[in-house]
Amino acid sequence: MFTRWDQIPKYPHIHYCVTAGWQYLDDFIQRYVDEYGLNLDPDFQRAHVWTESQQVSFVEYMLREPTSGQHLYFNHPGWMNSFEGDFVLVDGKQRLNAALRFLRGEIRAFDSLVTDFVEFKDGIPSGGRISSGIEFYINIARLQTRRDVLQWYLDFNTGGTPHTVAEIERVRGLLEGEV
What is the dihedral of CA 107, 92, 21, 141, to 10 degrees? Predict the structure, then answer.
């Protein structure tokens, strides 16, 4: 039992945060893999469990430039210092995979491939491109032990309750009733 606020263990401080626009995301992530050994599938992560339908729904949500769901969390104990230690994806595997599949032309959003989208400059089509407003925030912590990383992962992923199909269908019914 805690009786003072300062007794409560705090989550790790995010040591580094950078915005990664989707137009650069695939190259950005690949550079982290190549240069820093980023592991996108560490042993504590669950498998790729989102269905293609879930991936499409997420991409369509992100193409609307939302204000939530944009954060990805990584850990590297030596980030911006010695760069020694394991660099791992801690939270956001399903979201990142959905985005990369769309950007690689493996899935469609709004029935279109990424190459079907065209950006206009001064009213003139300038080629396929993802809007600069679509981005992830890459957050990197510097937890020093695997134990701390595993605890952080558990803290991220324990306690929530997914919506049931019935709950989602109920809200869809409410939406259909709106004029």
Answer: -160
Asked if 37 contacts 76 with a C-beta cutoff of 8 angstroms, the reply is: no
Mean pLDDT, 10 residues at a time, the chain of 179 residues: 87 87 92 97 94 97 91 96 96 96 95 81 62 88 93 87 84 83
Which residue matches tokens 């109920």? 170
Predicted TM-score (pTM) of this structure = 0.86
CB 133 within 8 A of CB 66: no
Alpha carbons 24 and 77: distance in angstroms, whole number: 25
**Sign (positive/negative) of CA torsion 150, 69, 176, 56?**
negative
The two tokens of residue 75 are 């850990």
Element (H, E) at 176: helix 165-176
Q: Is the dihedral of CA 83, 31, 35, 43 positive or negative?
A: positive
Write down the H helix ranges in 15-145.
22-36, 52-63, 93-103
Identify the three-state secondary structure at position 120: strand
pLDDT value of position 125: 59
**What's the CA angle centered on 12, arms 9 and 16, to 5 degrees?**
165
**CB half-sphere exposure, 112, CA atoms < 13 A:** 11
